[in-house]
Amino acid sequence: MHNIGILYLNESTDNVINHEFLSQKYNIIELTEDSKPVDELHAVIIREEETSDLSTICDLILKIRKQSQCYIWVSTVTESSVGKLVYLQLGADQVFEANREIKEIGLIIDNALCRIGQENRPNQSIEEISENKSMFQLNSSNISVVIDGGNEVVLTKLEYKIAELLLKTPNTAVDYETIYQQIWNDDSLENKRYRVANVVYHLRRKVETNIKKPKFIKTVRSRGYMLNI
């Protein structure tokens, strides 16, 4: 599980980041300005309380950058925060407004942290990547997939969308919430994980020789699914 540090400059702030939502997928650690080295953190969110915090946040970004290459996000009080450009120039990865939807913030975090696993894997040559992807080729015109260069299998639209999403980050887990939001994006629906699992089950029946021991679509326990190619 990834570790995310959250730093508030004012402990009495009413506009706090929704820890409960983020803690469903990440280990949330509350930090202070005097926190010890952050080398065990994968990301840090700094909460700007007022525009006068500019100098303090600049110092914090520089301090963190000396200790770690983790992601740094700054949550600002206003859309026109004067510090946005300065924060980015000093090494912040992204600056967003504090009133942004927590689910949108969650997707920003998901998309960034999912790259950590990719960056830590040994580099593959262009030939290796091409060869691996030829094992699982999607055809958008026919809404189908070709397995190992063999027969073409027609998919439903939902099956195709999930296969396409997993193929974007092969050999990297995509969590249930990300899959659901990318495919359905409707919070009014119930049983989100079941909906994802049900489509994956039917997709496996079409692309796997043995669905009890899937070769391509692997389950990553307590997280989601991964396309193994």
Automatic annotation (TrEMBL):
Pfam families in the record: Trans_reg_C (PF00486)
GO process terms (BP): phosphorelay signal transduction system; regulation of DNA-templated transcription
Q: Which UniProt keywords apply?
A: DNA-binding, Transcription, Transcription regulation
User: Has UniProt tagged this entry with the keyword Magnesium?
Assistant: no
**DNA-binding region boundaries:** 124-229
Q: Which Gene3D superfamilies match?
A: Winged helix-like DNA-binding domain superfamily/Winged helix DNA-binding domain (1.10.10.10)
Domain OmpR/PhoB-type span(s) in chain numbering: 124-229
InterPro entries assigned: OmpR/PhoB-type_DNA-bd (IPR001867), Sig_transdc_resp-reg_C-effctor (IPR016032), WH-like_DNA-bd_sf (IPR036388)
On the tree of life, the source organism's domain of life is Bacteria
Task: List the GO molecular function terms.
Answer: DNA binding
Protein name (Swiss-Prot/TrEMBL): Transcriptional regulator
Q: Which organism is it from?
A: Enterococcus ureilyticus
